[in-house]
Every structure is written in structure tokens, then in C-alpha cells.
Amino acid sequence: MTVAIDANSTTFGTLLGVADGGVCSYSSDYETANEAEYPNRSAYRSYYDGIYMGYKWQCVEFARRWLYVNKGYIFNDVTMAYEIFNLRDVREIHSNTNLPLNAFKNGSQRHPEPGAMLIWDEGGDFEHTGHVAIISEVLPNAIRVVEQNMDFAKWKDGCNYSREISAKIGEQGDYWLHCPPKEGQILGWMLQTDDELHSEHTPEVNTQLYNVQLYEHKTTATNSRPWLNIANEDEAAYVTMMKGHWLSSVKEDFNLYYGISQTAEALLETATDELHGIFMQATDYVLQHPEMLASFGFPPAIIPRIRQSWDNRLNQLITSRFDFALSENGLKVYEYNCDSASCYMEVGKIQGKWAKHLNIKRGEDAGKNLFSDLVAAWKKSDVKGKVHVLQDCDPEEDYHALFMQEAIQTAGIECERVVGLNSLKWNEDGIIVDAAGVPVKWIWKTWAWETALEQLRQEIVDSAEDSFINSPNARTGDTPKLADVLLHKDIMVYEPMWTLIPSNKAILPVLWALFPNHPWLLETSLELTEGLKQKGFVSKPIVGRCGANIQLVDENNQTLAEKGGNFGERDYVYQQLWPLPKVGKYFVQICTFTVAGNYSGSGVRVDPTMIIGKDSDCMALRVQDDD
């Protein structure tokens, strides 16, 4: 391999070279980044013409930017560079259409061409990530590439490429690129072409494997024998709420459960991880374009606090939940519950205990890792002191709070549950303390952030005033309001305030604008368009819980289902109609949970109507072999 770079290292952001189309390559030596110029993670996000390119200055960012400038198309987001080799289309920005992308293994009889992406597998210097470069020239015995994040050295004077990679052609016309051991293996090259000759064919997935299956466990056992351990506080609270040892409220369903294939779970895991990433990108984009925040309905005085939360606490997410429709027709996400998600105890504990009680052997518990992942996340958190778990006086919140308290305590962190706010007081120093006089510094809550904002909207005339988020009249011994607690400058809250943005339905039109025709997204708009009317649509308030105020309308303008609620006065979004599959007597929604932003388990919620609401049941979900 001939290297066309100098040996001198450079600081982060230094121009290394300029490729075709004037596309610049920059140094990605993060250890030398100027903290004043890059004060937070948002500063590292790269946009070009308002389109997200990637993380400054990684290899994927350069490849996407080069393709956009020179070809007019980009590829969908990936977690690691080597995953690009599995993509099979790119999106042309101007026409908003997908174009075919084909992969050719190193050694293929289809030779590389200028403009092709060159992909490395994970390993060597590219451990865990892989690498991507753009082929700029094809010579008789070598290729030249342009790239970022290979090293931190400038390209040689006069060179519009970073390096050469030697090549040999075999007797059958097979084209091989040299792979130094330290770099790992070159997977091959990617060409935007209709010609699939010599390409790597992605095995066609049997779409039937995406269908959720209903099973009945044949057993003589009944529910008469208790199976939840009421000596454990969270399980006792669950039994109290359910009025017995039940998984679902319908007694006749006790032996019923749902199953998905390993292929379906793999799809859910991939989609969950990628969707978390693009929701984060959309959140950052909204904060970079303040005019968009108007559609979210936030009080003006709160916005600087949201921005500060994003800048300082981007990675401090403990748990969240995606809601999906999954069937042979595909996978579509409805929304992201980033703040105050529910059902994690049902998925992380109850469905597993239910299966053990009935001695079910088919498949594996789809939520078996959730609790241990939560413990690991709390261990890695920035908590340095006692965590107060805040909840409302609600039976469902009782067991959610106790379940999370158990995870926090298992992580070795002191934790106390606070039911309601009456035991909290202001002290003489303007600090909120618990019943024992211990200052409240760290909080995990079941309350939604929006509840605190609504409280303030009702009490303060001018929501732009500083008094909207301060409590200058707090008196010693008074009980603080929820907003006082969650917005206190000395209290750190999980989930962070920035989760207000991805949890708000106004993020859905932003996602569709940034990632149109993404296979897991549904077309969504702030206005009811003719296109949505023709397809059928769902109207939903930008903030709302438990399916409240949702209406489903088909392409003939017939209402399929609707639910009332307390959010009818809020602004709405309009999302393409994509009904839940009906499996047996219920419509079934798949819920996936993230821990620290990564997939951690799945469960189902079911309802005899097409809208999942507060009273919709959780039932057990098992993952089975494809066979």
C-alpha cells in the first residue's frame, strides 16, 4: 500500500485534504478538540444543507457528505461503518426516491469504480466500528481513496486523495485489494447500480416470520396457586393493583401468550437502536432550528433549560420505550416514549415469572435482560448520593416506582421512594428536603415532564417570565409544587428534561422531513394533507398519554376508532394510518425498551379496539426459533 499522507499529526478539525467536489477531510483527533469550540455533543453533529451527515469528523460523515455533494444521494444512518455493507439502497435527495445499492465482495469479478464506497469489517485498527472510504480513482494495479478518521495526518501536497491501496487481478478476473493485518479485512465495495451481476445477494427474509403468533399453554395448572412473591415490595404492589396473581385483567387469557421469531426480534433490536439514534438527531436538529420549537408548545422560559439539559446530559437516559406495529407487512414505529415510559416491570419481571409458574418451555422470555441492564445503567450513571423515586398516588405507579427502586438499590445506590409531594419541604436555605431533612439532589420520577409544565401554564400568566421557572416566594416548611422540584437548579432528574422533545408528537413530522421514506417511519405532518387523506390517517395530540384523544380515519373518511381524553385542546399531528395487526381477539402492539439508548427487551400490549390505552393489557411475549 502506498500512503499519500505526511507523518505529522494534526489537531481536531484541521483540514487534511480536499477531494472531488471540494469535499473537505478533517482531522478527527478528539483528544485535541477545543472545548470552547466544541463545548458539548451537539457541537459535534455535522449538517450540510440542513441534512444530517454524521458525527464530526468520522468516516461515515465524510462518506455521506461526499456522496451528497457529488452524487446527490445519501445512505441511511448506521451504528457502525461495517453495517453499510448490508444496505441495499440510497436516497436521492432532490427526487426523494430510493436508488439500488449493490455490494461486491473483495475478490469480485465486478471491479471497483470511482465513486464507490469501500467498506472494512470490524477488526484491527477498526475494532468494533469498521471503516468506510470513497474510491476516487482506479489504476491498473491500485485504487486511490478519500476518507476521514483513518489517521490525523495531512494528505501530501498536490494530492486530492488520502492514500493508494494496491490491487491484483486473478485469472478469472477476480479483483483483490491488499488488506494489511493492522487494518483488518476489506469487505468489498458498494456501487449504486441496477446491475446485480456478481453482487452479494441479501437472502430474502420470509416475511411470515414477522407475524406475531398467539399460543395457548395446555396445562392442568390453574391460577389458584400464588406465583408472585409478595414479600418483595414491587410484586406485592403489583398483586394489589391486579387484585390477584394475574398477568392480564381478563382471567380467561391466563394461559395465552404471544410469540415472535428470532428474525423478528433481530429486526426489533436493529430498529430500536437505529431509531433511537435518528430521534436523537431530530432532537438536535430542532434545537439547532429554534423556529421549529413553536410547534412543540413549550413555554418560552423553559426552552433555555431544555437546551442546557441537551448540552449537558445527552447520554444520561436510563430507560425509554418504542411502540411498534409488526406484521408481514413490515415494521412501523408509532412514537417514542422517552419520558416516563410504563410497562417495564411487566416486561422485565412479571412475564418471566408467569412463564416459570406455568413451566413454559417454548421460546425465551423477551424481557429477560431488562432488569440487569437497568442495574448496569444505574451503576454507570453520574449519581453521587441518594436517589429519590418520585411518584403520584396511583396503584400502577406504585409497582413501577418500586421496581425501579429495586434496580437502583441493586446497583449499590441509596434510594427512597416518595409518594406524592407532601413529605417534601422547603428549608430555610431554599433547598427541598425529604421527611428526614435530607436534601433532594437526584430524582427518578414516574411523573411526566409535561405534567409540571401544565401546572405552570395554569398558575403563571406570562410563561416567558423568569418567575415561570423560579419560586421566589417559597417559605420554609411549605410543600413544593411538582414544577418546583423538577425545575430546581440543584436537582438532577431522570429522565432529563430534553426528553420533552423526542416524546412530543411534533417530533414525528421532523423525522419524516429528515428521513423521508425511511422503512420504519410513517409519514406525519402538522397539517392534514390530501395525501394523508387518501391513505388514511391517525390524528393525535402533540402531548397525550394512554391513547387519549386519538382518532383513526380510513381512506374513505370513515372513522375506524377514536378515544376521548384530556388533551383535546392541544395541537395535533396527522400520521399515516397503519393499523395494528389483529392476532386472535386482540389488536397487538409490540413495545421495545431501551436502556441507556440500546435495545433491552420487548413486550406486548393488547386491546379489543384499535387504540392502545391506559386499560390495555400486557401479556407475555416469548422469542422462538425461526423453525
Characteristics of this structure?
metal ion binding, single chain, about 25% strand, globular, nucleotide-binding, GSPS_pre-ATP-grasp-like_dom, 37 strands, about 625 residues, PreATP-grasp_dom_sf, endopeptidase fold (from Nostoc punctiforme), alpha+beta
Short description:
With 627 residues, the protein is an alpha+beta fold. Helices cover 22% and strands 27% of the residues. The protein has 2 domains: 5-191, endopeptidase fold (from Nostoc punctiforme), CATH 3.90.1720; 229-503, no CATH class.
What does this entry look like structurally?
Helix 2 packs antiparallel against helix 7 (395-410), helix 3 crosses helix 11 and helix 6 (370-380) crosses helix 7 (395-410). This protein has 2 domains: 5-191, endopeptidase fold (from Nostoc punctiforme); 229-503, no CATH class. 22% of the residues lie in helices and 27% in strands. With 627 residues, it is α+β, with helices and mostly antiparallel strands. The strands form 10 sheets. The protein has a 7-stranded antiparallel β-sheet, covered by helices on one side. Strands 19, 20, 33, 34, 35 and 36 form a 6-stranded antiparallel β-sheet that branches. It has 12 helices and 37 strands. The two termini are 46 Å apart. A hairpin with a 4-residue loop joins strand 7 (89-92) and strand 8 (97-100). It is globular, with a radius of gyration of 27 Å. The longest helix has 27 residues, at 262-288. Residues 34-178 form the Peptidase C51 domain. GO terms for molecular function: ATP binding; ligase activity; metal ion binding. InterPro entries: CHAP_dom (IPR007921), Gsp_Synthetase/Amidase (IPR051705), GSPS_pre-ATP-grasp-like_dom (IPR005494), Papain-like_cys_pep_sf (IPR038765), PreATP-grasp_dom_sf (IPR016185).
